[in-house]
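Note to self: keep these together.
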Amino acid sequence: MSDSPITPESWKIFQIMAEFVEGFEKMSQVQPSVSIFGSARTKPDQPYYAKAEKIARLLSDAGFSVVSGGGPGIMEAVNKGAYAGKSPSIGLNIELPKEQHQNNYQDVSLNFRHFFSRKVMFVKYASAYVVLPGGFGTLDELAEILTLIQARKSRKIPVILVGSEFWQGLLDWLRSSMVKEGTINAADLELYRIIDEPQAVVDAIFEHYDARGFEPSAEEQEILLTL
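Structure:
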């Protein structure tokens, strides 16, 4: 009886492995880092573009490598701000049929075909998440980190929402629907903070680590190994 042929899906494993290996090798060198998210559709003349650029510049000058999705809009603003600062500007780029093209403000660029391997890189090395207004992709990243922290599959890091007017409707719904129905606990609402001022974002991240330092503890390192 002859062996079954190797399927195309099986060969994809090697491509996926390559993405993880390159990502781990490069991202392990750029800690501490902050992952920042937001819409690819935000224009340079819109207020949140300028705010994202300012936050990224402050974080970069404060010693954080700054990580974005590497594309246009808020992602471009983030990389632009970090690129002008003292620490590396990192883009985790992905191939998409539309919207996504690599911006020109990246000291370190990684390219992905698979969302899931890219998402691991956002989480695994992040000391904080900063989330500006965005669409489904931004919501996906926000839900991902909240789920991982809630389930204790990732260490607890600051998750900061920028844009109280934009986010308030969603946050009200979390309380009035999800907490009310018991699908999340009221304590889960404390997994994130709303902060609008760029310097206050940076201060909140430092405040979180003030008593412990940025390096993951031995327990946290074990958690991150099984992320």
